[in-house]
Amino acid sequence: MKILVCISKTPDTTAKIAFTDNNTKFDTAGVQWIINPYDEWYALVRAIEIKESKPDTVLHLATVGVADADPIIRKALALGGDEAFRINLDGADSFQVAFQLAQLIAKGGYDLILTGKETIDFNGSSLGGLIAGINDLPYISLATKLDIADAKAIVTREIEGGEEVCEVNFPVVVSAQKGMAEARIPNMRGIMAARTKPLTVVEPVTQEPLTSVTAFELPPAKAGVKLIAPDQVEELVRLLNQEAKVL
Amino acid sequence: MSVLIIIDAAEGSIKKSAFEALSYGADLAAQLGVTATGVALGKTEGDLSALGQYGVNKIVQVNGDQARSDDPSVLASLLTALVTREQATVVVFSHSLAGKAIAPLLSAKCKAGLVTGAVGLPTTENGFVVKRSVFSGKAFAHVRIDSALKLISINPNSYKINTGGSAATVESVLLTAAAPRITITKKQKSSNELLLTEAETVVSAGRGMKGPENWGMIEELANVMGAATACSRPVADAHWRPHNEHVGQTGIAIAPTLYIAIGISGAIQHLAGVNRSKVIVVINKDPEAPFFKAADYGIVGDAFEVVPAFTAAVKKLKGV
Ligand SMILES: Cc1cc2nc3c(=O)[nH]c(=O)nc-3n(C[C@H](O)[C@H](O)[C@H](O)COP(=O)(O)OP(=O)(O)OC[C@H]3O[C@@H](n4cnc5c(N)ncnc54)[C@H](O)[C@@H]3O)c2cc1C
Ligand SMILES: Nc1ncnc2c1ncn2[C@@H]1O[C@H](COP(=O)(O)O)[C@@H](O)[C@H]1O
User: Fold this and answer.
1) pLDDT score of A104
2) What are the chain A neighbours of B116 within 8 Å (beta carbons)?
């Protein structure tokens, strides 16, 4: 069994969101970068758990990014995984990024490809589906559980107001969300081991992006809170009803 | 030429997000001077021609077992055929569970640029540019789609629903696609409660409630307001509340008309899931709680006193 986990680099959840170059670029000054939480906590940890229960599992990680993604992919390797690939491209859009990963996957012969539910910066929630579509693989999105049995993936996915359990043969692309695993902290042994695990830089293949960001914009600032005394709850209800007209 | 709008339905019943998408697609079609065509996959309840009220001209009902498939690849193949048949230049989805599964597959199959999480109609002066939410609601990006076929999926509660359109024509088609590869072995409904992402009003509570035994008053307030309930992450992690109520960066992102946050500090990761709410009310005993900065109305006070009074005041307003 061969698993690939797609890892993306995102600004820390508390990063200040600001833009430069006439609002066309994200301002990275002072920003701490982390592994996208969905990739780390759910996709990667579940893949590590599968490898722990089936030690002959091969677990690879891949990211599309330039050299500044190396610390992130090493951090992911410190949690687990055998080796990593970095496709050396500053991806312009999800399609271009998915196309790179799709080539790697087609060559690598992976059975299970895991992505996170979405990146917390771009919130595309589309990369897994794009990879599946490009390589004509089945796609299960927003999975909350994943098990392997009889050479099949047994996946629980979220549906409107509930969940359903699906069965699918390999190879398959699954996007992971909360529920799939519990976050782990890398230990010293993992951090040491990650230094010597192979990290291969792969040159990108040509693929034009289909979309491009022309500008960013910050939402208008809130007018400020209107405070109501705790013994004046009726006044709050009146305001919600007559001023805000939401009740 | 046409704008296709994929009608979001759960178990055959058409969802509010579909009414938004139909309105968005109809307005976009008018802007582009093309036909607005709604697409119903599989059996849906009710009279489809009535969907004309949202401004669409035509509804295509896709029949056959495959249109009801649980495998999003099958649905994406059907839509690929439909795009050609209807000479679509734009396809509009809801950024819902179904849309998140199908839209990227269609994007890959048709090499069509996809913008997810759209919050407004495109502008066409400088290419076809769609405004979308990024950084978990903390900013917007304007994204240009350069491919001939353009795919857009719109965020829930982000577009005004049209009224007053006339009846749409309804056409049935039978399309075929490759066999499904995904088999469903079990379906579990978690509840019949109001869907969090669709709710107009959400009553949400955090660690300030001290323990799960105190959620009675939260549920009661939600009940009298006809609201859905939500919670902060530590509350779900501690199993005080079910996981599907967890809102925020790592939970569900919502954009209700009214969000009431009780005993929640307002950490940036929590705000990331709720900052698209139209009006935010915060009840917290700590005047320094960061949530007040993001709020429209606030009460600095003890939830255990304020919430029952809130419920009583709403009851009084509604005369119940
Ligand atoms: C990567 C990452 C992702 C995260 N994702 C999420 C997410 O998706 N959603 C999320 O919610 N959190 C998320 N968090 C956690 C987040 O940072 C906060 O820790 C969390 O939101 C705090 O929850 P809380 O407000 O319920 O609890 P606390 O921070 O403990 O706040 C409790 C509040 O209740 C008030 N209070 C106490 N007693 C009363 C009373 N009697 N009456 C009124 N008020 C009272 C207190 O003043 C306080 O403000 C994430 C964190 C990280 C690092
Ligand atoms: N540059 C990237 N390199 C590798 N994987 C990525 C990259 N961007 C996104 N992903 C994966 O795709 C998932 C969904 O991303 P998105 O569709 O951009 O929201 C993420 O959780 C990652 O697992």
Assistant:
1) 98
2) 123-126
> At B192, is the pLDDT very low, low, confident or very high (cuts 50, 70, 90)?
low
Query: Model ipTM?
Result: 0.95
At residue A199, the pLDDT reads 98
Q: Is residue A62 part of a domain?
A: yes
DSSP states of B79-146: HHHHHHHTTEEEEEEESSHHHHHHHHHHHHHHT-EEEEEE-S--B-BTBEEEEEEEGGGTEEEEEEE-
* A32: in domain: yes
CA distance between the termini of chain A: 55
Q: How many structural domains does chain A have?
A: 1
Report how far residue B259's alpha carbon sits from residue A118's, in angstroms, rounded to the nearest whole number.
24
- Give B-chain residues touching A215 at CB under 8 angstroms: 141-142
Per-residue pLDDT, A161: 80
Q: Is A246 part of any domain?
A: no
Q: What are the structural domains, with CATH classification, of chain B?
A: 2-174 (3.40.50.620), 201-318 (3.40.50.1220)
CA A200 to chain B, closest CA, distance in angstroms equals 27
Name the closest ligand to CA B115.
Answer: 2
Range of the structural domain that residue A185 is part of: 2-217
Query: What is the CATH number for A175?
Result: 3.40.50.620
Looking at residues B83-90, what average pLDDT do you find?
98
Among B113, B195, B251, whose Cβ lies nearest the Cβ of A210?
B113
